[in-house]
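# nightly structure sweep
# worker-07 picked up a monomer target from the shared queue
# config: single-sequence mode, recycle default, output format = C-alpha cells
# input follows
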Amino acid sequence: MDREKDRKNSIRKWFFLLLLVILVAAGSKYLVGQTKVEDKKATEEKKCGAEECHTKSAQAKVEGGEMEEEKKYSEEECHKKFAVKLNNLVWDLLGKKDRTKGEDETMIHAAHASHYHWSVVGKAINAQRGHWMISHVYTVLNRPEPAVYHAKKCMELTEQHNFVDFDLAYAYEGMARAYAAAGEKEECQKYIKLTAEAGEKIKGPEDKKLFLSDFEKGPWYGMK
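# output follows
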C-alpha cells in the first residue's frame, strides 16, 4: 500500500512539473509576441511622426513663403539650355592653357553634344555655327580629317542659306584653319585671303573686333 501511494504521489509531482513547464513556455511566447507587437507599433508611430513632422515642416515653409516651387522645363527648353551650356564649356576649355587629355576628349564631346541639341531646337544658323565649333576644336587638337569635314559642312550651310557678314567670315576662317592643320598650303592660303576680305566687311564694330582677334590667334601650323 505504501509503495502504491508513493507511486501515485510521484506521478502527481511529474504531472504538476510538466504543467508548470508548459505554462512557463506559453507565457514566454506570449511575452515575446507582445514585445514584437509593441516594438512594431512604436516603430510605426515613430515613422508616422517623422512623416507628419516632414509634412508639417513642408507646409510651414510653403505657408511662410520659404519654399520655392520646383521649376519645370519643356523638352525644347532643356535642349536649348544644354546646347548653350555645352557651347560655353567648349569655349572655357579652349581658353585653358594646360588641358589634360581627358579635357581634350570632353571638349570634343561637348562640341558634338551642343551641336546635337541645337539640331533639335535650333535653326540653320545654329547648325552652321555648330559645325564651325566642331571643326575648330579638331583643328586646335591637330586632327585634320574631322576638322576639314566639319569646316566643309559649315561652308555648305553658309552657301545654302546665304549667310553673310560675321558668319561668312568665320566659315572661311574655319576652312583656312582646317586646311592648315591638314598641311594643304594652297587651299589654306586661298581661304586665308577670303577670310581677311570677309572680316573687313563685318559691319558691327564689336563683331569685327572679336573676329579679327580670333583670326590672329593660332594655331596656324606655320601656314599664316
